[in-house]
Every structure is written in C-alpha cells, then in structure tokens.
Amino acid sequence: MDKKAYLRPLTLAVLAALASQAALAEETQLQAVTITGAGDKLGVGLLQQQEGARARSDVSKAALEKQSPTSNIYQGINMLPGVNASSQDNTGMFGGALTIRGFNSDQIGVTINGVPVNDSGSYSVYPQEFVDLENLCQGSVTQGSSDTDAPHMGASGGNMSFVTCDPEKERRVRIAQSLGSNSLQRTYIRGDTGLFADGKARAFASYSHSETDKWKGAGGMKRDHVDTGIRYDFSGGYINASLLYNRQIGNAFGTPTLQQLQQTGYGYDYATNFIPGHLTPKNGTAQKETGPTPAYYQLQQNPFENVIAKVDAVLKLGPDTRVKIQPYFWYGYGGATSQQTQSESAFLNKAAHADTAAKDLNGDGDTLDTIVVNGSSITRTRRPGITVTMEQSLGNHLLQAGVWYERAQHVQTGPASLTNADGSPQDPWMQSNLLTRPDGSLYQYRDWETVSTATQLFAIGTFNFLDDRLGINAGLRTPQIKRQFTNHANDGCGASSKTCAAAYDYTINKTYRETLPSFGMRYFLTPKQQVFFNITKNYRAVPNYAYSSSNGNVQVINGQVVMTNDVVPETSVNTDLGYRWQGDILTLSGSLFNVDFSNRQANSYDPVTLKSVNINAGGVHTWGGEIELGTVPVKGWSAYASLTSNHSQIQNNLNWKDASGNNTLLQTQGNDFPMTPRWMAALSLQYSPGAWYVRADVKHTGKQFATLVNDEVVPEYTTVDLDAGYRFGNMGMLKNPTLKLNLSNMFSTSYRIPSSYKVNAADTVRYNLGAPRSVAVTMQVDL
Q1: How far apart are the C-alpha atoms of 217 and 269, rounded to whole Å?
Q2: Is 547 helix (H, G, I), strand (E, B) or coil?
Q3: What gap in Å lies between CA 426 and CA 456, rounded to an integer?
Q4: Which of 60, 456, 480, 755 is at a distance of 20 to 30 A from 431, taking alpha carbons?
C-alpha cells in the first residue's frame, strides 16, 4: 500500500484523538495532576488566548527560541492553521515561500516592528532578510482579514506582524555558537545595557555571522546581521526605537521543471564548472558562446542589503487620550544575477527603438560574436513613511483614528558585466565593471523607476457591553496609492524594430483608491466559551510590473506607447464565524471562513528568465475551516495541534493576452486556484520536566496544483522535525549555559514546492525541492 494513501487519515486521527483526550481531561478537571508554567507555554508557545473578533494565531518567544537560530520568519509560523510555508533549505537562510488560506505571500501584508516590508512594487516578501530569531518575541497571523490600521496597499489576504524584544532590564551579554550539517557555522552575540538614566532607559545591540553550504550543488550563503533597540520610558509615555540591518550573498538553488526533475533526479542543480567556457577571440569569425547547461552556479547569485529603522513615540495627552507617532525608513539594494548571453550586435539603438547597435566585447576587432555575461535583476528602494494614531478611551470603549503616509522610490535595473576567465562574475553586487552600450550609456535589460505615494485614513471603534460579554468592532480605512512608473528605454527587446515598448521612454501614472469597511462581534457564552464573527473587505493595488512591456498590457501603436489593458485592483471580502474554548488546561479556537475575490491577480515569476507575469483571474471563491488547540504543561507534557480544510475555486475561464497582443483562452472554470492545499494538519508535542526539553513537530501538507489549468499536481507530503535542549547550572561567571539540538526533516522526506505557479501556456513551472535531514547544535551562554 502506498504510504501516502494513509498519511492524511493517520495524521487526522492523531489530531482527533489529541483533541478528544484534552477535552475529556478538561471536563473531568484532572484534579490529580500538577500544572506548571501555563503562561507563555500554552500550546508549546504556538497559541495565545484571544478575545478579538477576527481569526488570529500567534507564536510566542517560548516557541521561537526552540527553533534553529538561522530559521526565518516563515518557518516560525509554519505550524499555525491556514499557513503553508516552505524554505529552500532547512536553515531558512536562502528564503522561502508562503501561502495562507491560499493567499500568496505577495497578497499578505507583513510588518516588522510595524514597518511594512513587502516589496513596494511587487509586494514580494524575502523572509530571511529581516531579523535574527533570538531577538524576535512574537509573531502573529491574521488569516484572511487585514487589520484596519495596517500600513499596506497589497494585503488582500490578511496580514502578519513580527515584533522584536525590548531591551532587557538587567545588564547582560549573550553569546551563542552554532555548528551543523552542510558546514553550517553561526556566531551570535548580544549585549544589553540594563536600566540606566535613573531607570528610564535601556538598550541592546546584537550581531550575527552565519554561513552554510547548499545541500545540493556548489556554493552557499553568507549573512551578516545587526539588530539594535533602545527604549525610554517617562511619565507621559515612552519612546522605542529599533534599527535592523542585514547583508547577505549566496548562490541560488537550481529550480528544475518537472521534466528536468524526472530526467536528472533530486540532486538537480546548477553546473559546477564553466564548460565549454569562453571561446578564444578570432577576428572575422562569428563565435557563439553558449555557456554551461544548466547555468554556471557562480553566475546565479543573490546579493542583498537592507535597513529597517523605526521609532515609536507614545505620548499621553490626558487621562484617557494618547497619541502614537511612528516614523520609519526602509532601504534595500540587491537582487539576483544570472548567466546570460549578449550578442555584440544587439545593443539598444535609441533612434531605431531596437537592439541593433554593435560593440566589440571580446576584443577581437569585430562585432559578430555572442558572449556569455553576468546578467542581473537589481532593485534599489528608499522608502520613508509615518503612521500617526489618536486613541480615546470612553469607559469600556475605545476610539482610534489615524493616518498613514509613505513615499517609496523603487528603481529596478538589469545591468550586466563581463565574466572572468573562469566564468565567475567580476562584481556580483553589480556596482562596478558594468557593460556599456556603444554610446557610452549603461547596458540595461530593464530600466524602471516607480515612485509610489501611499496614504491611508483609518478609524476603529471597539465597544464592550453587557459587562464585557459582548464586544463589537467597527472599522473603516481608505487606502490610496499613486504610482508613477517610468520606463527608460532599455535593451530588453531584441531586434523587434519599433514594436517593443521596452525600447521607448514612457511614463504611466495611475492612482488607485478604495473604501474598506470591517465589522466584528465577540460574545462570551460562558466565562470559558466565546463565539465570534467578522467580515472585512480587503484590497490589493496593481503591482508595478503590470506596466512593463513583458505583460502585454503596454503596446506600441503608431509609434506611441499606450496602455491597452488597464489592470484592475484585486479586492476580497473575508468572512469568519468562529468558536473559542479557553479553559484551565485546554484552549481551542476554530473558525469557518469564506472569501469572495473580485479581479484576483494571478502572478508568476520565473527565476531563470527573471520575468514576472500578471493577469486578471477574475472571480475566485475560497471557503473552508481551521481549528487549533493547545494545552498547558501537565506533568511536563504539553501539545499543540492545528487542522485546515481549504477549497479555492476559479469561477470563470480566463482570456490571456501575451506581449504581442495574441489572445489565448485558458480552461480554468471550476479549477482549484494554484498553491492552495486542500488539507493541512500540524502536531507539536513537547516534554519539558525541568532543565531539559524535547519537542517533535509533524506537519502534513495536502495535494495542491501548480497551474491555473490544474494540469500539474504537487503531491502531498509530511515532514517531522525534532528539537531538544538542556540548561546547565550556572558556572561562575557563565550564566544559564544552554545546549540546543535541532533536527530538521528527520526522515528526509522528498517533496517539491513551485517557485511560482503557471499562469499561461507560455510559462514554465519550476520547483524548489525539500532539503533532506540536517542537524544543528547550538551552545549559548550569558555573561
């Protein structure tokens, strides 16, 4: 019998048994057992008791600190209901993918310390860049419904927020060293000042250096990260500031198609040698370099550097009135490099609006050759913003109103450079030795500048009646974003002769605005039982790449660039009906949800060609149910479980127009929307009797599809992780020495996750493959 045939029923049976046993224990009061450490250990730190009107799940520091220190934010929330997260390797340093209730990560608003970190153009999220796990105190997921005061323009599917820990009140230095599989090395050091300035201020700074090899193929990743924070409390409020800095560079993983995977096996990756290499230059001969197939790994790198700076100033204006002022600045530079070929006779000729200019690249005196170069997709973002919120308490009621403003300058280019003799890039950061055109200007495969000015007014009323048994929330926000997209004529056309918009200078100005109401209720049936209801309208403005020539939305007509297909923003209406049981031993929360999409944007990105595609998928109906439950520690044992049932159906056939204006009808009506597993289940079981702990996490992900036409299936899979640790007694000046073990994918389960789903017949689905078993050991000590 195929083991996959019984994995899901077995997993569900375990979860059902756990729920029934926990409920029985609650009902009979279990008076003979001893309950310890209930606090933040509820549900092994994967559950917190809620009183809101929305479906929401949390991860506390108690759970995060047991994970491998290199883990990214996606790995931290993977056990929560509705969440389908994956990473390109077990360390999490190479990034990952995420969907929640079938919403892709670029449809979910993400904040770090209140700062929006989705890409300001495409809304993409890069989870490995933001924070060191040791400094993270909480992660929250609002499934389906975006918060009314959330600073997002692309959150049609809810939001996630992550908050770093405040500086410690006691002076401390913490040092940790990790070693593991694939030559993993990581050093972390954090210093806390403790209280100073008459006990009003405290600060911390931390630094980490991490590096690892890829689990397949050649190359690896190096990452340097700094987190800092300072808090100052005074009688009328507080000021809390943080600065997070990240710099990393590494080699990309090969992303095979299903056909390549079947032909070459699970170890498919980029070529480790630059063969056949560069040809010897020869005047008068047309020499065509092809480069290795697959591409050379040194020409597939991902350098990136970013800064997240934030200040929270909370001022008390009166006994029941306060204002929050929250300015921030986000900076990022980097992207991806790739092996490309450049014809010496295919540089941009601005007068002809075609790539017909010629330049000798290899020094042989002719312009007949095609040369392997290091191409790239580089982004530089400067993004200041501010949120101001007024709060007024009226007895048991709270009124909030505020404004959010942001101006993001987003410059996206595609420079290239010659490679060294061994095929390595001259500068993987693409800041020197760049190719120029015959007229001396920089070669650019793309050259876009997007200025996005976002504003949002919001108001929230929270009302409590019947001695707080009944809670009502009503909210309204009015997001508006003005995009000014400028395409500077670039070399992305080929010799297409006046028909490709990329070869023209053009600017598109678009303004999108919407009014988004929300309403929710929560009612205590008994002190331990709640029911809740919520309905929220969400919104996602059009991503900036929809205005590029590669999407078929922009055409050249009579020598003029016009937008022939006006892409419509995506909206969704999310409804939750839920129930919570919050007892002394067991906490349970479950909800039924329904989401109706209008103009759902289907987006795909090819990591090989570095091209994005966006089309309107029309109406999509999503519905299902989620449940999570957790126990407090009972004689050292505690548990958490979650279960998700999710269905997402496309309501109509789709008409796709390619870059040449040709129409193709896609047979999609009644199909599942891609990357939406119908079933997911998670179980975390922990035993922690005192100085040591051991925790096992099991996650089952059901079948999903990789294409809109549902002709390529992603099989179901189950992974098991094991975490353990031991805290030694103090040893003189060494305080709290702790040894941790993290064993990932214990049974080396093989699985594949689409790097992006297939939107149209011209797309290719490429896959990230699940990494086999790996281990990391960490020794941590305080001074």
Answers
A1: 5
A2: helix
A3: 44
A4: 755
pLDDT computed for residue 655 by the predictor = 78
* SS3 assignment, position 412: strand
Give CA 692 to chain center in angstroms. Answer: 32
* DSSP code for 43: G
Q: Is 79 exposed, middle or buried (0-12, 13-18, 19+ CB in 10 A)?
A: buried
- Residue 206 to residue 199: CA distance in whole angstroms: 22
∠ Cα 282 286 287 (to 5°):
70
Question: Dihedral (C-alpha) 536, 542, 544, 546: value to the nearest 10 degrees?
Answer: 150
Distance between CA atoms of 736 and 397, rounded to whole angstroms?
44
pLDDT of residue 606: 62
Amino acid in the structure at residue 216: K
**pLDDT at position 8:** 44
Q: Give the separation between CA 659 and CA 313, rounded to whole angstroms.
A: 49
pLDDT at 663: 73
| Cα Rg, the chain, nearest whole Å | 27
* Cα 578 from Cα 438, distance rounded (Å): 65
pTM of the model: 0.91
The CA distance from 458 to 597, in Å, is 23
CB 527 within 8 A of CB 488: no
Mind spelling out the 3-state secondary structure of 298-310? HHCECCEEEEEEE
Tokens representing 563?
């937008």
CB 144 within 8 A of CB 576: yes
CA distance 156 to 144: 8
The alpha carbon of 101 is separated from its chain's Cα centroid by a whole number of angstroms, namely 15
- In single-letter form, the type of residue at position 194 comes to G
- 365 φ, ψ to 5°? 90, 0
Confidence (pLDDT) at 661 = 59
Q: How far apart are CA 629 and CA 19, in angstroms?
A: 7
> Do 370 and 355 form a contact (C-beta atoms < 8 A)?
no
Separation between Cα atoms, residue 244 and residue 229, nearest integer Å: 9
Residues 6+ apart with CB under 8 A from 410: 119, 120, 121, 379, 380, 381, 448, 449, 450, 451, 452, 544
- Residue owning tokens 């002394």: 584
Measured in whole angstroms, the distance separating CA 704 from the mean position of its chain's CA atoms is 19
Whether residue 338 contacts residue 271, with contact meaning beta carbons closer than 8 Å, is answered with no
Q: Which DSSP letter does residue 271 get?
A: B
Secondary structure, 3-state, 125-178: CCHHHCCCHHHEEEEEEEECCCCCCCCCCEECCEEEEEEECCCCCCCEEEEEEE
pLDDT at res. 611 = 64
Q: Among 463, 476, 592, 622, which Cα is nearest to 531's? A: 592
CB 86 within 8 A of CB 75: no
Q: How far apart are CA 624 and CA 645, in angstroms?
A: 5
| Residue 85, strand partner residues | 98
d(CA 725, CA 122): 40
Tokens for 348, please give them: 């941009």
What pLDDT, on the 0 to 100 scale, is given for residue 36?
Answer: 34
**Quick one: which H or E segment has residue 75?**
helix 73-76
Three-class SS of residue 110? strand
CB-based burial label for 1 (10 Å; 0-12, 13-18, 19+) = exposed
pLDDT in tens, 188-199: 999 999 999 999
State which amino acid sits at residue 438.
Answer: P
pLDDT confidence of residue 293? 93
Of the candidates 614, 755, 703, 676, the one whose C-alpha atom is nearest the C-alpha of residue 257 is 755
CA 187 to mean position of chain CA atoms: 25
The residues of the chain scoring below 70 in pLDDT are 1-40, 495-498, 603-614, 657-662, 760-762
Q: What is the 3-state secondary structure (H, E, C) of 741-766?
A: EEEECCCCCCCEEECCCECCCCCCCC
